[in-house]
Design a protein that fits this description.
Blueprint: H1 2-16, E1 35-38, E2 45-47, E3 52-59, E4 64-71, E5 78-89, E6 91-98, E7 101-102, E8 112-120, E9 126-135, E10 144-154, E11 161-165, E12 168-170, E13 176-178, E14 184-187, E15 191-197, E16 201-210, E17 232-234, E18 245-248, E19 254-256, E20 264-266, E21 278-286, E22 292-301, E23 309-319, E24 327-328, E25 350-354, E26 370-379, E27 398-402, E28 407-417, E29 430-435, E30 441-447, E31 454-460, E32 466-467, E33 473-474, E34 509-510, E35 521-525, E36 531-539, E37 550-558, E38 561-570, E39 574-583, E40 589-593, E41 603-606, E42 614-615
Parallel strand pairs: 3-10, 14-23, 15-23
Antiparallel strand pairs: 1-4, 2-3, 4-8, 5-7, 5-9, 6-8, 9-10, 11-12, 11-16, 13-14, 16-21, 17-20, 18-22, 19-21, 22-23, 24-25, 25-27, 26-28, 28-29, 30-35, 30-37, 31-33, 31-36, 32-42, 34-35, 36-39, 37-38, 39-40, 39-41
Length: 620
């Protein structure tokens, strides 16, 4: 043991100086070398003796990554036989990537790579670990090369698991109770399949969403882009149910469709970093050939501090039951406009659905066996207000609803026969409706308080970036459908480009001005012209004098795709500069968040009324 230490110490000292191993000229073989070169990002700092990286502040429920190049300054092949974490403290260290071979130095050969991640365990607690690589470098061909990784835990917020199914999102008030050790067990509403026909199967979707409060989970200044923060992890917990994500009993006929490996993580939504913020899973039930009633529990264990243990009662019945068939009402059956083409659905449209092909398996050709219908909206885009759906025909064979927001809706049809036996969830009972904006630029604003007024603004910043400017800002005072002419409207519509009439082509239009609700407000530009356009939100205090803090959400769609989403809490008279759209001559576009003032995405200033142009100031 003592002899090994005498051999290693000089080698490690050389490694820290940047030159591990030396080329030995012999008649038999060349000797591989190894250098670990730190590659810090952002405010990370390279360390020496031995080589290392100080990650700086790493958010709790986040992850810091230390990257090293593995350099072989020799003509022999370097082999890395093993890699291990030694003496970790203050958190969890993981070797994510390590090369097993590094070829001889050549301009055509890439260096190897070592990537180590660090997850802190508590705020203001330093973390430290040594990474040891066993290699064939050096004269003895058993050199251990070391690197160090450091970091400091930083609190910026916590993950928040929201689970949506059956038209509801959970946990709700009263769902969770302390089990006696400070950890909550949350029992949610049932996931009910109803009657599933014998020999058939049924599928329901369940949405997991990591949705921390607005203005939390912000990256510390100088952090590398797309550093994970407020990450939610689902994993088996021996101190809980030791299931992670699964059913008890496991043999009741329920299963998760597809491969859901444990553990898995879910970052808050950040479209620029390809983090959708949510995960849609399918839950299957196989009815079998014998009538039965089935009850199980779906358990979800995560590191959400408020709801670490979640249990969802799951029920189904295998029955000889009628089958609901929900379809779009086609224009070959009903004349326009009271019909729907599935791939042409847009927000702010009414969709028409048909359930007349539902049947009873006792006699599929006898439509009189189906005596009742029930249509339900099971899913809708985040921020949609069910009061805006304008449902008609909810208990008849034909049904319609209005779509206030772009995004995904799920409608479910249930039917019953003359005996009162009801259908259940099946492959034909659920219909997905995707409302896709036709305009090349579609901006959407929603908020979470039912009585205040949030206003969406889009300025043509290439010419003038003044909020409430009558000419170069599209907003409620000049851009909504009732303007000009309605009381409170400006005299003229925004007409930024004379090549098209107002509200058409490259000129903007505001579809809805919601003055007392949760939105939406939408601004569209059908065919944008090259230039810069800036997005603002104003908490219009002249309507709501209670000054209730309100969480506003802005979504930016470019060419039908959701390109960006921003959330921030606003108070009365706050003006929020959100983002800038740069549209190019070739029809491509960038969406860039306004530089943060440190309190959330973008910047906030105070603006009272909306009587004239308000200059927010430099973009900086």
């Amino acid at each position: 043991m003592m002899r090994k230490r005498i051999v290693w110490m000089p080698l490690l000292a050389v490694l820290g100086a940047g030159a591990l191993g030396c080329e030995t000229n012999t008649l038999t073989r060349a000797v591989p070398r190894i250098r670990l070169v730190p590659e810090p990002e952002g405010f990370q700092v390279a360390l020496a003796d031995p080589a290392g990286i100080d990650l700086g502040q790493v958010p709790l429920y986040g992850l810091g990554r230390a990257r090293f190049r593995i350099v072989n300054d020799s003509s022999a092949v370097l082999k890395i036989n093993s890699a291990e974490i030694r003496d970790p403290s203050g958190g969890t260290f993981t070797i994510e990537t390590v090369s097993t071979e590094v070829l001889a130095v050549s301009k055509d050969v890439k260096d190897g790579e070592l990537v180590v991640s660090f997850v802190p365990e508590a705020r203001d607690v330093p973390g430290f670990a040594t990474i040891a690589l066993a290699t064939n470098a050096g004269d003895r061909a058993d050199l251990v090369a070391e690197a160090q990784v450091r970091g400091l835990g930083l609190w910026v917020g916590v993950p928040n698991l929201e689970i949506c199914y059956g038209g509801q999102c959970y946990p709700q008030a009263g769902n969770c109770a302390d089990r006696g050790d400070g950890k909550n067990v949350c029992t949610l509403g049932p996931l009910a399949f109803g009657n599933v026909p014998l020999g058939d199967s049924a599928t329901q979707s369940i949405l997991l969403r990591n949705l921390p409060p607005a203005d939390t989970c912000l990256l510390p200044p100088g952090s590398p882009d797309c550093t994970p923060v407020c990450r939610l992890t689902v994993a088996k917990d021996p101190a809980g149910f030791d299931i992670g994500f699964g059913f008890a009993p496991a043999d009741a006929g329920f299963a998760v469709s597809g491969n859901v490996p444990l553990p898995f993580s879910l970052d808050p939504k950040n479209l620029g970093c390809r983090a959708p913020g949510e995960l849609q899973l399918r839950i299957d039930f196989a009815a079998g050939d014998v009538e039965r009633d089935v009850v199980a529990s779906l358990t979800i264990e995560s590191d959400d501090p408020d709801s670490p243990y979640i249990q969802i009662p799951v029920t189904a019945a295998a029955r000889q039951a009628p089958v609901a068939v929900a379809e779009f009402l086609g224009c070959d059956t009903s004349p326009p406009p009271n019909c729907t083409v599935a791939d042409q659905v847009q927000p702010l449209q009414t969709v028409y659905l048909d359930g007349t092909k539902s049947f009873d398996p006792r006699d599929p050709g006898d439509p009189t066996l189906i005596r009742s219908y029930q249509w339900l909206v099971m899913e809708s885009p985040l921020g949609a207000n069910p009061d805006d759906f304008r449902l008609t025909g909810e208990t008849s064979s034909r049904f319609s609803m209005w779509l206030p927001l772009a995004g995904r809706y799920l409608v479910r049809l249930g039917v019953a026969n003359e005996l009162g036996i009801a259908s259940g969830v099946s492959a034909t009972s659920d219909l997905v409706i995707n409302a896709i904006p036709k305009s090349r630029v579609h901006l959407q604003l929603v908020w979470d308080h039912p009585t205040n007024d949030q206003d969406l603004h889009l300025t043509y910043a290439t010419v003038a970036d003044a909020v409430c400017d009558s000419t170069y800002d599209c907003f409620w005072g000049n851009c909504k459908p009732s303007c000009p002419g309605e009381r409170g409207c400006r005299d003229t519509l925004p007409h930024w480009f004379s090549s098209s009439p107002p509200r058409e082509g490259p000129n903007p239009r505001l579809d809805i001005d919601d003055t007392n609700g949760v939105g939406p407000e939408n601004i569209n530009v059908d065919s944008p012209a090259a230039g810069k356009y800036r997005i603002y939100v104003h908490y219009y205090g002249n309507v709501d004098l209670t000054n209730v803090p309100t969480q506003a959400t802005v979504r930016v769609y470019i060419d039908t795709l959701l390109q960006a989403e921003y959330r921030r809490s606003l108070s009365r008279n706050d003006l929020w500069r959100v983002a800038e759209i740069t549209w190019r001559d070739d029809g491509s576009a960038d969406v860039v968040e306004a530089h943060s003032d440190g309190a959330g995405p973008g910047q906030v200033k105070t603006m009272g009324g909306c009587t004239g142009g308000f200059n927010f100031g430099p973009w900086f």
